[in-house]
């Protein structure tokens, strides 16, 4: 089957893409459910923002594999992605979703389900098993996933996140092999050690690699990454997009100014509670702190709330000084 093609403005891989926050609302019973209207509005607001050079976010990550989305039921996740598919189509960007399973059969079923609800690219985590699979088993897992994606008409993005608890690292050798598979659109590398990106680019200068940690956007670009997936970009989209514009032009000093301005809040993207921290920062930004604290994940302590608010305010003042609020 031929992979479906969505009309897009540019090659989405040469951009930053927001991993959108799932906004929740509290029912009279006290339970939480997804606020689809608010989530769509936040996603649209981020995709509307333009960098100084006029470019915009190139894709929409509607459901990642870590953070709050890991607490959603399968039914909730499907409903969320269907809702965000409307936004992605409006802005003519690919809808991206994470996927994780213990077995290659399990990941194949998930990919089929995601393809059926108009997901364009699936970020596939390594098998979540107790023991690390051999390189042979790891390759077979992804090879099976790629064949399934190809048959379903979607592309795949192997997701290497060696710093995440519970997930196994994919070796550079296997990543290089996976990049050659027909329906692998890019590799996502989430680690503060960007030397892995440089190592692979030395082997294959045509690789498409997306960075997954906001603190190293510039460093990853210097190592050879063509784009990235961002959490901080939801809060400061104009700054995030502008920084990527400078990275693509090789204007490292200008890109680094923005990186430094975002530093106090980007730091949170590399922490275990990154979702909870950044979601609250988003709540502060849009003047909905209560919404920013509604989560299916961990509850923040007063100390953590105070720290995140201070980090947000510092980043905001620095970004404002660069004229990049928006």
- CATH homologous superfamily classification: Aldolase class I
Helical content (DSSP H or I, runs of 4+): 40-55%
Oligomer classification: single chain
> At the first level of CATH, what is the class?
Alpha Beta
Number of domains: 1
User: What structural category characterises the helix and strand content?
Assistant: alpha/beta
Number of helices: 12
| Amino- and carboxy-terminal Cα gap | 41 Å
Q: What would you say this structure looks like, in words?
A:
The chain has 326 residues and is of the alpha/beta class. The chain has a single domain, classed as TIM Barrel (Alpha-Beta Barrel), CATH 3.20.20. It contains twelve helices and ten strands. The protein has an eight-stranded parallel β-sheet with strand order 1-10-9-8-7-6-5-4. Helix 1 packs parallel to helix 2.
